């Protein structure tokens, strides 16, 4: 009797241990997580090239005194120096207050009195330079280049699979008429009249009127006005090399540098964006009529 009780106890203990192991195995976390599938997507950074202005001291870099004569000037912010051989885009730094601005660089006559650098009115205002007060500046040429930029794309959320529910097949309604029973025709019924054919005349589609050309009222972009013809010619050469239809037009005693004419408002907007990318943000649309 004692042996049977012990054997029965051992069997019950083994059963309890096996049940506990099964429950523990069923409660282990899965790779899907408690709230659904776990997104294991790994985002890889992407490297792209973006345009950016970079300094080119190998083209032009001079630190010297500059002055604004106090008179208003045309052509936006610019600076002139006697050692310039071609028009450039530069960054000017006022070394007394560390203010930096972008401007165009032109050549000035060496025989003119005063400091080597001559500032336009807009450049002097941007640099906080008072009229008639010489300040030391640093002028460095800049060119548009391409720099690497790392872009990390946003992780893509997992797309749930579409569940296609089964479509019930249509059930044909039982016919009340036995198809094997012949149907007798009604002798008294009159034969149906055959409808007359309908004649449809072909209609040619109306032609839409030709769209009028979207020509702008002011098809030229004015880049600057210059009293020195050589500076205007240097700017025309630079803009032409950049792929823009630039030209110099006489405007009294000055020379007006323009880009155009544009055949449409879209082309005019393209000229404006190209000029802004080159640093001529003050260019305006004009008409030469």
From TrEMBL:
Name of one Pfam family that matches: SPOR
InterPro entries: Cell_div_SPOR-domain, SPOR-like_dom, SPOR-like_sf
GO terms under biological process: cytokinetic process
Compositionally biased intervals (Low complexity): 184-195
Keyword Chloroplast belongs to the record: no
Entry keyword set: Cell cycle, Cell division, Signal
Superkingdom of source: Bacteria
GO molecular function, one term: peptidoglycan binding
Transmembrane regions listed in the UniProt entry: none
GO cellular component: cell division site; cell septum
Claim: Transmembrane helix is one of the keywords in the record: no
Signal sequence, renumbered to the chain: 1-19
Region ranges (Disordered): 170-195
All residue ranges annotated as the SPOR domain in the record: 213-289
PANTHER family: CELL DIVISION PROTEIN DEDD (PTHR38687:SF1), CELL DIVISION PROTEIN DEDD-RELATED (PTHR38687)
Protein name, entry field: Cell division protein DedD
Organism: Pontivivens insulae
Gene it is expressed from: dedD
